[in-house]
Fold:
Amino acid sequence: MIAFFSDYTVQIVLMGSIILGITAGSLGTFAVLRRQSLLGDAISHATLPGVCLAFMLVQTKNPLPLLIGAALAGWVGTLLIMLITDTTRIKRDSALGIVLSVFFGFGLVLLTIVQKMPTATKAGLDKFLFGNAATLLHSDVMMMLNFSVIIFAFVVMFWKEFKLIVFDADFARSLGINVRAFDILLTTLIVASIVIGLQTVGVVLMSAMLVAPAAAARQWTDRLGHMVLISALFGSISGVLGSVTSSVFLKLPTGPMIVIFLSIFVLISLAFAPNRGLVWDWLRFRKNRKLIQETSMLKNLMLFSEIHTDPFHPHDIAALTAIGRGAIDQTMNEIRQKGWARQFPDKKWALTPKGLEEAKRLTEEFEEQFDVDTSV
Amino acid sequence: MGAAKGKKETIKPAIEITDLTVAYHEKPVLWDVDFEAPQDCMLAIVGPNGAGKSTLIKSIMGLVKPAAGRVLVFGKTYRPESRLIGYVPQRGTVDWDFPTNVLDVVLMGRYGHLGWFKRPTDKDRRLALECLDKVGMTDFINRQISQLSGGQQQRVFLARAFIQDAPIYLMDEPFAGVDATTERSIITLLRELQDRGKTIICVHHDLQTLKEYFDHVLLLNVRALALGKVSDVLTQENLKRTYGGRTAFLAGMTEDEEPRG
Amino acid sequence: MSTHQFEILLLASMTAVTCALPGVFLVLRRVALMSDAISHAILLGIVLAFFWTKNLASPLLIVGAAVMGIVTVALTELIIQTRKLKKDAAIGLVFPFLFSIGVILLNRFTGDIHLDADCVLFGEIAFAPFNRLVIDGVDLGPQSLWTTGAILVLNLVFITLFFKELKLATFDPGLAAALGFMPVALNYGLMSLVSITAVASFESVGSILVVALMIAPPAGAYLLTDRLHWMLAISAGLGIISAVGGYLMAYLLDASIAGSMATFAGIVFLFVFVFAPERGLLARFIVRRWTKWNFASDTLAVHLLNSEMAHAEDTERIVSHMNEHMLWDTQYTSEVIAQSIQDGLIRKTGDKLSLTPLGREKAKESISKK
Structure:
């Protein structure tokens, strides 16, 4: 195991996936919050013709021109989406679908042409489809690092502005912030973060690398800063797990493996995250329901005793059932355990002094909360 | 009061709009609007849906490019950098599930004062707490914003505007979807601001409360149909011109007829 | 043209039409990207069904794919209903997950059978004619021609039978529900159709290019007509043009047929996008230039009318002050004034502008129709 991690190639792969996970995870946060999750999908598919064209032009496997080509194509795709939605009645989803599939199709055309070129050493362009972490070189990782340092410099520099334009663009404008410019800058950074993942995850699944960590991270925090950090953490852990498994086992493509790990994070987060998790929701729902049942029972007891002069007059459970609902025996037992009510040997129930006080307090609280005028 | 009024007439109006026409895709949203808001007034912009009320507010801040006409704020062309206007957008325009808390939203009001790289300081934080105290939200500073009621969300928005400490406040339907208690406390706060010499302009929907809450009103339906003191402007005739035929619901709200019931 | 080429061309055109029909409803219902999600996710259905039957030709593969399409839609809806994630994020999570499982299973366990990741992405329409349907020794043509044909008929039947319901559920789901048209059931019906269509087209054009054929022709048609039945017909037409043009392009470039079809679908869309009468970029540009002038003289007339009604001072109407009032530059102002005088809307007496009766009429009209 130690031997495995000290292996030079493995270290490269690990470095690459960590950088990728951190960058895509952080920028993905903004994409998800701006409801642009599917824009990532369109952009990543749209990069393919850029990669191929760049290769046809420079004819090397040097990744820099390929990635610049990818970024340019992704950017053109994004602008086209904006142009189509701004100038026609075609909606965003259709514009995304057209750019995604047409650009990818064109990429495919170019790919088949490249593969037939005599000089092509098969170019290894295939790996841009599903990604292959094992083929990452030291130079690739260094370039990813450079890209991501630049991306992060922008994010840190314009943190406030990005936060504000995503949350409340109108207000940002009223402060004199150039929303359009920051919007384009943020989208450009998202394009860049997609580009650095292409070799590892591939164009087909790169969007998941943006969406999934952010979606999972949202469950654990209510602060944007923390969300970015957690998202980066989830992204890099999944990246590492995916890359390692695909490097160790034969015939496991990297991209899909990373997506599987990401999905596990999402599933766990959706279910178990404190406060926002579904399990948490369910427990809260149960607790609320129990509380409502208890307090309504208590009030009913008080209501009944108001008929009598003695507030502690015992009542038959049948009478309570008549106006109450649900698990009545269980609720009564809960109330007794709290010392609010007692049961006589003839099975009748009565309030305790403590219970009466509680019932009065609850009634007052209720009136206050709903602004009921009690003075009349 | 009389003397103060006499003096005021020599002062430049807070906002002066002449011949403003705004169009989206060559469809006019505002047609040749003339409008003047005196300093430290409390003015309501009233009109039916699609009357261009929000657009008017946005053009005052220079967020909408006019097809013709001119907007002056204190006699000058307005640029957001001069920070003369505090803005309260409609509550529905933001994503309340955004991961942020109450204090943070209020601090956003200071972003215009901070340069790039700069984070809010302790002084900004103190100011934010003061403003939250004013709107009665001190107990909620760390609350995630989706867990607030409509009234509480509006209070947070107000606090964010107050921290800007601007001489003019533009508010887009500040009373929409808030509870009665909040509505009363908001109006008290706005009166306080007015007493301190601030100008307040609200898009307002409720004709019932118009007379009670505001001193000036602009009736708007693409064109400016009437402008002035609420008591002068709020006539059956003017409302009919503003709202067209649908005036049955307006009965009993105006000065020029006896209230019914 | 050889029989082989003719068969490919026929299959390509049929696939394009089959895709375009349900695509119209995806575009109108603003769920175009569900086609992307479904076409990816069905891979898992196909792989699982293949494990079950061990037969690549089994019709169960289509059933498996259709089921997986429905699962995708249901899972997405389920996530949206938890209200933890927005719709776009939900879609963006579900299909990569299902697709990834499909790809991994495919890579690990299906060894050398004719089903690999490349084929999933790109399809192999060029090989379609080799797989022939032979009954009692009679060659009835390529098998995929028959499957695609059957699904085309299915789509036609579904859309014809439920035309009224689909139309209403698309434009007013609330009313459709109130009238008892069960928009939810209809939605799942439509999504099943999309899944089945995607399966049939999968083999020929692959999972991503299906999206091009489902979305690009209907989006183009959306710019050409306002009537639903025309939109269906035009989409089918644009689909056929994309298929034929794409095939030709692939032949000339010696490149992937499916990729060329998608590219050509894009070219066709781009052409419509620029040149469509009324809604095209060019037409809009021309109309806008015209309305801009028209609007400027309207604005001037309305301004004059207002100052007339308000009995404002004469400075409001003086030519040399006009640019100040309208905040237009001097050049633009004098052009607008000249144009308006020429159109007989205003007249100039000395330095003062006033409305002609015609101009007054027009200004009043502009105001009343707001």
